[in-house]
Amino acid sequence: MDTSILSWIIWIPVIGMAAIALIPREKVKTIKMVTAVATGIQFLATLGLWSRFEESNGGFQFMERAEWIPSFNITYILGVDGLSLPMVILTGLLFFLGTFVSWNINRAQKGYFALYLLLNTGVMGVFLSLDFFLFYVFWEVMLLPMYFLIGMWGGPQREYAAIKFFLYTLFGSVLILIAILALYFTCGRTFDMLLLMQTAPTALDGVIWWGMSAIKVIWVMLFIGFAIKVPVFPFHTWLPLAHVEAPTAISVILAGILLKLGVYGILRINYTMLPVAVWWFAGALALLGLINVIWGAMCALAQTDLKKLVAYSSVNHMGYLLIGMAAVIAAGEANGNNLLAAQAGLGGAVFQMFNHGTISAMLFILVGVIYDRAHHRDIEGFGGLATSMPIYSGIVAVAFFAGLGLPGLSGFVSEAMCFIGAFPVFKAIVIASTLGILLNAAYFLWAFQRMFMGEMNEKYKELPEINKMELFTVIPLLVITVFFGIYPRPFLDLISSTMNVIIDTVANMGGIAGVF
Amino acid sequence: MNNLQSLSLYWPELILTVTVLITIIADLFYSPKESGRTALWVLGGLFLAYIAIKVQDSTIVTTLFMGNLAFDPFASFFKTLILFATVLVIFISQRTSELDGHRTGEYYALMAIMVFGMFLMVSAIDLIMVYLAIEIVSISSFILAGYLRGDLRSNEAALKYVIYGAFSSGIMLFGLSIVFGLAGSTKFFAIQEAMWNLEGSANFAFTLATVFILAGFGYKISAVPFHFWTPDVYEGAPTSITAYLSVAPKAAGFALAIRFFNQVFGDGGSFIDPSLTTYTELPWPQLLAALAVVTMTLGNLVAMQQNNIKRMLAYSSIAHAGYMLMALPTLSSQGVYAVMIYLVMYMFMNLGAFFVVIYVKSQGGGESFDDFRGLGWKMPIVGIVMTIFMLSLTGIPPTAGFIGKFYLFAAIINAGPQMYWLAIIGAINSVISLYYYMRVVKVMFFEGESSETVLVPSIPVLLIFMALAIPSVVFGMYWTPIANWVSQSLIFFTQVI
User: Are B144 and B107 in contact (CB under 8 A)?
Assistant: First the structure.
């Protein structure tokens, strides 16, 4: 088990899925238990992975390698490093908690949980695979379960939301596929990401396609593919719809993990295989981040549907992350070798990935709680909930504060790091995006005020308090948020070696930025 | 080889000829109800033909009947593929309700004749042989398309098919005669040689001839703008025949087109030096690329608007022809390889999709999207299987269709940056196709409600579903056997001068 732990982590859900396929559909309880056990074991395995992970090693660990299709040089390669490990743990945690969030699904449970586990495998596979072909297969495997989970168990506009999600992401995927093939044929016919990281920068150096640098062409194709997933403005329009229509657990997974896949892809592939182009694109990236921050916050401010507000808050939060990512060029010679800023920016971005994963998951679970009771999510339709549901209100308050970046909670640390890192390079953008922070605080506080303060809405006087099952899903996330808000050190130690490797790769390319 | 020697390498075709005769004679002794038993004779004949292909020495690469037919692994590959498709369609035909009340003796005999014609198509290396082979296939498919005599739409299908067929083969014949006039021979190799010595002033005539010949090939593979017969014929013909037409003659048409273009315009498929692949200055790669783009785009855009699933699949098969056409202009072994892989994958998924349509209809349903409403709840197995076929046709991993597309895109991208635009258009087209394929999935699962009783297909039906669905998934994850088979079959009979 020791050497193949990554394979186990990926394939345990498929074993669970096979088991579910054999259980008669009437035995709902058994199906749920199988899902809980499968995701539980997977989560424990990810924790085991963490305990044996060497933090000082910035390279890949627990590598696995097996022949797959030798005639096309396709190999089964898995590995984990400081960039993917936090995401793997987050995936394990959220899928485990998501099982309990899904407990109340009341139709076609067999299909729901089978697809849920398939989605789990797809996500884990993307984070762990180091062969480009394998990566792409897992990337696509996620789409189908997501399409069904939104389309069959979602809200009133579910069909439209599901196909829109599918079309948008598939469009991004085919661009990624073409970019992968272009890399394959120009960089020595290999899908091995580790090899490509070494060969791509030199093999593509100076290659011109249709009057453009090949590096830029591939970078842009990959970026669009990943940006749709993040989502970066203007590719974000599928997100509010999909989030709002999806059932609660799926919104949690979507916001908590799937959005991170896009960022992960950019960091894993664009940054390490095409580091030269990071220099060319960083400004645009920061600018897109700024647009995301402002646009997301303004849209969130205008929402009356609580779930839509949370959805737009994701767009807003992803903006901070993009600004942090762009800060990596601070470490280059042209920017005065400011290694600390680059570390703060990139580390902040990865930390923000994790924190947004926990905070937005918490927010969506909490939205689900009130929706299950009141059967609507209209912010204006509530009022004075603090008196009828004091515990719930307290938790929502903490979650909202985490969302708006209150010091002492994890969101603050990562957002601050993004800004600190980006400030030396993109002063104007950072200053402008502080407006976003203001709006960010405004939409959360205003929503809180309208829902929980003020006059009690008589209709909801007897609303039952948050129950134990729901508390069980929220409390772990709450604890993580508070813990990392006060003491982020363990997380930053975990990722720092790998971050330094990525920063080195990009920074070393600073000298030849004039190639274009 | 001379005629007598050739016979020793001609066993599969001889067996087929005998099969056709036996089937027709046997049918005389069957009562109308028992007529379906002729299928057994045909299956037996096809099995023997398969054995004959397998035992043939695959190292022999030669021509038969004084340079009329090629005998090479490439031809054997397509013959095997056609046999597989035919056997699957015969099994499917046993399960269709459309043929009830019809004598099916001729039906199976005609299918065997078609197989014979397609065997000739995939090995023809002489213009006259090309024409004869295409006509053998066409005429028997005209009759099969109109097999439901009492059904107006089936009659319409047959008539349209005949008219379009006659028209396009007439144009092709004209093109062939121009080529003969320029080259002075009907043999591919002689034409190739003549091409090199052609004066520049003849380029226009040759281009024109190529376009005319494309009309004939395009008609067989239903490429735009020779596709107009496809939707009506596919809709009107018995669905089993539609399924057959969408796979086997299409494969044969591609084999013929590959052989013709590689032999006449390229270096004959030996692919020694990619830079030598175009000897002439004719713009035919661009012509084929444009044809591919128009074919897939039109197929997809029109398929989106259909309300009848059979008709939607007809347009989607046009789009698939377009995808495969993308790889021909690369004129590389990778391109041919990709088309061959694609055809194998396409056979399973497309026959599967049509079989679902047949099965639903035989269970009292219909062919429109409305008839598929809630199908996934009523017949979960059929719903899941259909979902697999739809995903595979879209090209979502891990399905066979994705591997097919993957190889196509790989071949195009390998051809160099000047072809990337084609890959991008192809990729966008697969995104468009997602919309209408997923519409089937949507009506099957997102509409309708969970029902108490679910319908499970009978064992034979289940077996056919498995025979089509399992390869559609398994070959998406592990396709080394197919890849090996194709790469061993990538040997052409060539005469490089």
Answer: yes
